[in-house]
Specification:
The structure is a single chain. This protein is an alpha/beta fold. It folds into two domains: 65 residues, 2-Layer Sandwich (Signal recognition particle alu RNA binding heterodimer, srp9/1); 57 residues, no CATH class. It is 23% helix and 26% strand. The strands form two sheets. The chain has a four-stranded mixed beta sheet, covered by helices on one side. The radius of gyration is 17 Å and the shape is globular. The mean pLDDT is 93.
């Protein structure tokens, strides 16, 4: 039997600090401290100006979820992402109870900068809300 491997999810983005902060707020993650420095400010001062704020990483404080890595890239998002995150807030719920949980989480995320795109509602346990993060990357409330 093969061993389970750890992995991280990497986001290409224009503003890594902003996108990392958004996902930390969504998932309850924390920004990882930079190795070898007491603060991010110290780390950033040690970098050439063009490299400052070029990345951030976030981790699950419980150690269960994957590390999220955000890296600055020069090109903007043009088409729908091929991979997206499903934020699991309605697991085990069906019908109106599931819909209420999805809507409550949607309402929490909108002030953080998320955008609601559409509700995919089947009346059962497969409903989800398609949303976008602060840079337009799609994700689902599931």
């Amino acid at each position: 039997m093969p061993s389970v491997r750890t992995f991280q999810v990497t986001f290409d983005c224009a503003r890594p600090v902003r996108v990392a902060r958004f996902w930390c707020d969504v998932l309850g993650y924390a920004v990882s401290p930079p190795k070898g420095f007491g603060t991010w400010e110290e780390y950033e001062r040690s970098q050439p100006p063009e490299e400052r704020d070029s990345w951030r990483a976030c981790t699950d404080p419980t150690g269960v979820g994957p590390r999220l890595y955000f890296q600055r890239v020069p090109e903007g998002k043009v088409v729908k992402n091929r991979v997206h995150l499903d934020v699991r807030v309605g697991t085990g719920l069906v019908g109106e109870e599931r819909l209420a949980a999805l809507e409550a989480e949607c309402a929490r995320l909108l002030p953080l900068g998320a955008t609601r795109l559409r509700l995919l509602y089947d009346g059962g346990d497969d409903s989800c809300i398609v949303m976008q993060d602060v840079e337009g990357n799609e994700f689902c409330l599931d």
